[in-house]
């Protein structure tokens, strides 16, 4: 039986970077279980629900980050908030209007994603600026929607999807798992996933190889906004309404889940499985700070410090691999 040496193990972990976020989840869960009695299978269910919303948003953020050039979608929090308001207004608490609400939510996501893609890919505005500006516009629209909404009545079917459980398993966790599997298959088993990674690694080389780079990158921005819109719809149903800046916590956390999960911040390589584990790990970190009764401001500082540390480590490692000089070939 062949045993794996350190080089083989190192290569495997590089190809499967999600293993670190999974180990982080297991270690942190074990430590918390050992030092406190507040964690159990029921609390694990609560962590799963909280993670589910973050997973959906983070998968869209992951797609944008994979396109490279330092692309990040900063409009997702505003998309979530506006989507929650618009969906509640359109559906009005009636199952008969649920389909219309879903269509409107999908349309809102497509519209915002198309605007972001046009600003970044056609107008050549840096993504961090373009999506931030889009977010400000959407925040203004949310203010208007907040004044126009008559009340908060959730359609029964929508509430069931967001809050119900099947055999003790939250439906939202199942939804997040299905979307994660679909994203993983799209990244690893489809032509689009391969071309998306190629664009993130070297857009010029991909263009010379015949890849329609603008179309591929635009698909990532569309996916990010659509997932954010549907997450806002489901989150509104879960909390029983909508409120201003309800999507704000997901902005930093979505990026944190992506980098904690092993997606390269420089683009070109993503892992949907790692993004899911990264989201769970981030929720566990927040849970730990809440158990320790840290002030909200301190929690934000700790979250930011963790994400910065991971970004620095990932960025330095990736840069080192890209700039490492090639080994000279033997003379003939």
Radius of gyration: 21 Å
Give the helix/strand class: mainly alpha
Walk across the major sheet and give the strand order.
1-2
In percent, how much strand structure appears in the residues?
under 5%
Number of strands: 2
Number of helices: 14
* Highest-level CATH class: Mainly Alpha
Number of domains: 1
Helix content percent band: over 70%
Q: What would you call the quaternary organization?
A: single chain
Sum up the overall morphology in one term.
globular
Mean pLDDT: 84
Task: From the 3D structure, determine the CATH topology.
Answer: ABC transporter involved in vitamin B12 uptake, BtuC
List keywords for this structure.
332 residues; ABC transporter involved in vitamin B12 uptake, BtuC; two-stranded antiparallel sheet; 14 helices; 75% helix; globular; disordered C terminus
């Amino acid at each position: 039986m062949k045993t794996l040496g350190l080089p083989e193990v190192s290569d495997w972990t590089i190809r499967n970077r999600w293993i670190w976020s999974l180990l982080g989840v297991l270690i942190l869960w074990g430590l918390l279980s050992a030092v406190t009695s507040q964690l159990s299978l029921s609390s694990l269910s609560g962590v799963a629900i909280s993670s589910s919303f973050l997973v959906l948003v983070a998968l869209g953020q992951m797609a944008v980050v994979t396109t490279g050039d330092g692309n990040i979608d900063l409009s997702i929090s505003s998309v979530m908030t506006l989507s929650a308001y618009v969906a509640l207004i359109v559906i009005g608490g009636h199952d008969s209007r649920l389909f219309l609400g879903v269509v409107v939510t999908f349309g809102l996501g497509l519209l915002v994603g198309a605007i972001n893609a046009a600003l970044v890919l056609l107008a050549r505005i840096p993504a961090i600026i373009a999506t931030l500006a889009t977010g400000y516009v959407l925040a203004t629209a949310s203010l208007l929607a907040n004044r126009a909404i008559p009340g908060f009545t959730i359609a029964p079917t929508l509430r069931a999807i967001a809050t119900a459980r099947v055999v003790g398993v939250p439906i939202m966790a199942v939804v997040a798992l299905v979307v994660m599997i679909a994203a993983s298959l799209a990244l690893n088993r489809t032509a689009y996933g391969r071309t998306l990674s190629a664009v993130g690694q070297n857009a010029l080389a991909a263009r010379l190889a015949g890849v329609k780079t603008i179309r591929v990158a635009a698909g990532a921005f569309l996916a990010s906004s659509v997932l954010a819109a549907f997450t806002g719809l489901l989150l509104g149903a879960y909390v029983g309404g909508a409120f201003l800046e309800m999507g704000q916590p997901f902005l930093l956390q979505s990026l944190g889940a992506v980098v904690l999960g092993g997606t390269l911040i420089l683009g070109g390589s993503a892992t949907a499985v790692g993004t899911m584990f990264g989201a769970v790990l981030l929720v566990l970190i927040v849970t730990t700070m809440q158990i320790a009764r840290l002030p909200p401001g301190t929690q934000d500082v700790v979250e930011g410090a963790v994400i910065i540390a991971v970004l620095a480590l990932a960025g330095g490692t990736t840069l080192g691999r890209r700039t490492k000089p090639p080994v000279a070939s033997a003379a003939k």
